[in-house]
Design brief:
The structure holds two protein chains of two kinds. Chain A has nine helices and no strands. By secondary structure, chain A is an all-alpha fold. By secondary structure, chain B is an alpha/beta fold. Chain B is built from nine helices and twelve strands. Chain B starts with a helix and ends in a 35-residue tail after the last helix. Chains A and B meet through helix 8 of A and helix 3, helix 4, helix 5, strand 9 and helix 6 of B.
């Protein structure tokens, strides 16, 4: 038991590694925010494209979504970071990570919003048509507001899981929290910074978990 | 299952799991003489531990530990590949018996682990591309340099990066840091000079620049309470120095004989690294079979 305290809860090392871990936490927060904003927006846009029910739009969307869901994010991050330079394209590590994760989140979000859009009863759009609304207005005023709300509960769990994957950025030297945890525990030859880092991850992502709980409850009984 | 039965099962599981570590701990279970020697390394750090095209591991440290395993009378030798920053946790968690990945003795490390005697002198160097050389430390101002997370170079960067205006990129694996140089993501990677020189010899796309001399030495790290095993391995290491086996391994990998005054040749009195925590000044006279 004393071994566990010495190796994981050594508060001396906690204090010493705190500045570096805080810097990493800021970067993790930036990565997570960028991923969420870009991923959810792109996902919604893709779902809307599919809702227009035009084959030449729907097919590329489906191809992208299926491919994004099938390939692990870390593989995409690696390819963007290590392989693209051979084609003389050099993206900084931060955008590589955000791009890979946002693509993954967009694919998942598109499926959730699409399921929501499809769940809106046909009667609603038919009624709107009889009122003389154009197809685009029907989409924007009647179908989407309800579709998005119906899709949210499907999205929350996966959004959290993909956003936590920001720690994958560590393998391409983005100085986020996991990267800093690794450095600190290497410098002090003691795993205590790992424990502190884990607690900081908890603090960063707990609000996201609570927001998604609230969203699930709020949007459960819709339409 | 009723509530009581379920609760009873959970309690039983917790009770048994509390005992399990005790069940596993038998006499000298940590270093069983009938089992292969289990060591940790970050495989990919040429020429100390790295993989050949057929997937087998080789290198200076690999050969060194294989010799130790033979002299300890073990049936074989297993290398566990772990990223450098986690390698200390692996040792403390008893997943391996010691670390063969070349580890520089530093004050923080000596506080947490028990070191054997020095066996290699360390100098740090920058590995660059042959088409973009560095003439001095000033050439690095404003550039990015890659290091392996948790290494001595990482440490060096923590204290010196700002002074020289260097931007640091920290990778989990040394191989990734070297790759980053190859694809021009970073201007250089800071590594051990022996590793840099070896890499350059085998891959002419690279070059070694700006060698920083240090007093550092490599030592084999053991768990703090593992004194008896540390002393035993130290004895084997001393015998390897005395009968020239260690120098032969050095010559095999670096093409030249080690410096007569270097830690690869010098046999240190006592057990462990002189001047560091855990050093034992008194040891019985060396007897080598």
């Amino acid at each position: 038991m004393t071994d566990i305290l010495r190796l994981y809860f050594d508060f001396g090392y906690w204090w010493k590694s705190l500045p570096a871990l805080l810097r990493g936490a800021v970067v993790t927060f930036e990565l997570a925010s960028a991923t969420l904003i870009i991923g959810l927006t792109l996902g919604l846009a893709l779902a809307v494209l599919r809702a227009l029910r035009r084959r030449w739009l729907s097919i590329p969307v489906v191809i992208f979504v299926d491919a994004s869901r099938a390939v692990p994010s870390i593989v995409v991050i690696f390819l963007l970071f290590f392989a693209l330079p051979y084609a003389d394209i050099r993206m900084a590590a931060f955008p590589c990570a955000v791009l890979a994760l946002a693509a993954n989140l967009a694919a998942v979000a598109e499926e959730a919003f699409w399921a929501g859009i499809q769940a809106v009863p046909r009667g609603h759009s038919e009624a709107a048509r009889t009122l003389g609304l154009s197809p685009l207005l029907i989409l924007g005023l009647v179908v989407l507001p309800q579709g998005i709300r119906l899709g949210i509960p499907l999205l929350t769990g996966k959004a959290i899981s993909i956003t936590k994957d920001t720690s994958l950025a560590s393998v391409v030297a983005v100085p986020e929290l996991l990267n800093q945890m690794s450095t600190e525990q290497g410098v002090y030859a003691n795993p205590s910074p790992l424990m502190l880092g884990a607690l900081m991850f908890l603090l960063i992502f707990m609000p996201l978990v609570q927001v998604s709980r609230w969203a699930e409850r709020r949007y459960r009984w819709v339409a | 299952m009723t509530g009581f039965r379920l609760a009873g099962c959970i309690v039983a599981m917790l009770y048994l799991s509390a005992f399990y570590p005790g069940l596993a701990r038998a006499d000298d279970e940590d270093h069983p003489t009938s089992a292969k020697l289990r060591v940790a390394a970050e495989v990919g750090f040429a020429p100390f531990n790295f993989r050949l095209a057929d997937g087998s591991v080789t290198g200076f440290s690999y050969d060194l530990s294989q010799e130790i395993a033979k002299r300890l009378g073990r049936p074989g030798y297993d290398v566990v590949d772990i990223v450098w920053s986690n390698i200390f946790a692996a040792l403390q968690g008893k997943r391996v018996e010691y670390i063969i990945g070349p580890m520089t003795i530093t004050p923080q490390r000596a506080n947490e682990m028990l070191f054997g005697e020095p066996y290699f002198d360390v100098a740090l160097a920058f590995l660059t591309r042959a088409d973009s050389r560095l003439k001095s430390m000033d050439d690095l101002r404003g550039k990015t340099v890659a290091v392996t997370s948790g290494s001595v170079q990482d440490d060096w960067m923590k204290t010196n990066a700002e002074k020289y205006g260097i931007e640091v990129s920290r990778f989990d694996k040394t191989a990734d840091a070297v790759q980053a140089v190859a694809i021009k993501r970073v201007a250089a990677t800071m590594t051990t000079s022996s590793s840099a020189l070896w890499t350059v010899k085998n891959q002419p796309i690279f070059a070694t620049d700006v060698i920083v001399k240090t007093d550092g030495v490599f030592g084999l790290p053991f768990r703090k309470d593992d004194v008896a095993f540390r002393n035993l391995v130290d004895t084997k290491l001393k015998c390897m120095k005395r009968d020239g086996t260690l120098s032969a391994i050095y010559r095999k990998w670096f093409g030249v004989d080690p410096d007569p005054g270097s830690s690869t040749v010098k046999i240190y009195p006592g057990y462990g690294a002189p001047g560091w925590p855990g050093y034992v000044a008194e040891a019985p006279p060396l007897v080598c079979p």
